[in-house]
Amino acid sequence: MSTHADPFTRMLDSEQGRLLLSKAVRRKLRRGQMLSMPSQFDNQIFIVRSGRIRVHLMNEQRELTLAFLEPGDVYSTHTPAWVTASESSEVLLISARAFSELLAQMPAATGTVVRSLGMLLGRMIELVETLVFRDAHARLAHFLVSTARSHGQRSANGWTLRLHLSITEIALLLGSTRQTVSATLNHMHREGVIMRHGPRQFFIADLARLEAWNGERRTGCEAPRPKQSTQDVGQPTDDVEMPG
Predict the structure, then answer these.
(1) pLDDT at 112 exceeding the cut of 80
(2) Quick one: which H or E segment has residue 7?
(3) What letter does residue 4 receive in the DSSP assignment?
(4) How many CA atoms lie within 13 A of 14 on its CB side?
(5) How many angstroms separate the CA atoms of 204 and 152, rounded?
(6) What span, in angstroms and rounded, lies between the C-alpha atoms of 161 and 154?
């Protein structure tokens, strides 16, 4: 579970949080099951209790992932986005009206909800900035740098990442393809910027080097492009789980 949701999760364990939970309906979702869609009229607030929920836009030509919601995140079913479980998940549903009435009675909880929504909005804005101003290769570098800082464990030798999104999910989040993400990871591995420590763990020996590579790509200077090859020592596959 990500650390960004901890304040809200702790609030749910308080007396005020238990009051909110008593008004909510628990719903379990299987992987791929839809929670809401743009044409849906009911206006409900949901809180992710376990698993991971994908928020995305979609038309006949393409999809754009806006966010992956994790335990403690708060969102609404009444948005122009599709909301789908990317793995087995559990959410708490409560009508927007009842949610507002409860928050009016719990000033302390209001601040926690606002902070949670603010962080979610910040992640979405950062994603849009990344999609607009960086190419596919620089997006992945930025993603790894950002994830290392927010979720990684730092040591004297570098950063260790335990990752929770598949390569396909990362590609969806970055507006890229699975092949490009895999090839770029392989390129980074060959350059010694990242190392694979098992199927769910990566090690970044030199975060500054990865940042510089990212910066060069964003400003238009040519950094080495990865070869589109499926053979490499790292051999990342869709079974490798990576962070959100």
Answers:
(1) no
(2) helix 6-12
(3) G
(4) 12
(5) 10
(6) 9
Of 47, 51, 2, 7, nearest in space to 29 by CA: 51
The Cα–Cα gap between 61 and 80 comes to 17
Look at the block and give the residue holding tokens 């910027």. 193
pLDDT class of 218 with cuts at 50, 70, 90:
very low
Copy the structure tokens of residue 227.
Answer: 């070869």
- pLDDT surpassing 50 at residue 100: yes
Which residue's entry shows tokens 């070869």? 227
What's the pLDDT band for 35 if we cut at 50, 70, 90?
Answer: very high
For residues 162 and 229, the model is more confident at 162
Q: Which two tokens stand for residue 59?
A: 């038309």
The stretch 31-58 carries a mean pLDDT of: 89
Q: Which domains does the chain have, with CATH numbers?
A: 3-131 (2.60.120.10), 134-242 (1.10.10.10)
Strand, coil or helix: what is 54?
strand
**Residue 206 confidence (pLDDT) above 50:** yes
CB atoms within 10 A of CB 71: 21
Closest-CA residue to 186 (of 124, 121, 140, 120) = 140
User: CA 229 to CA 139: how far, in whole Å?
Assistant: 19
Q: Which of 72, 78, 79, 80 is nearest to 53 (CA)?
A: 72
Q: To which residue do tokens 């698993």 refer?
A: 51
Q: Decide which of 162 and 181 is more confident.
A: 181
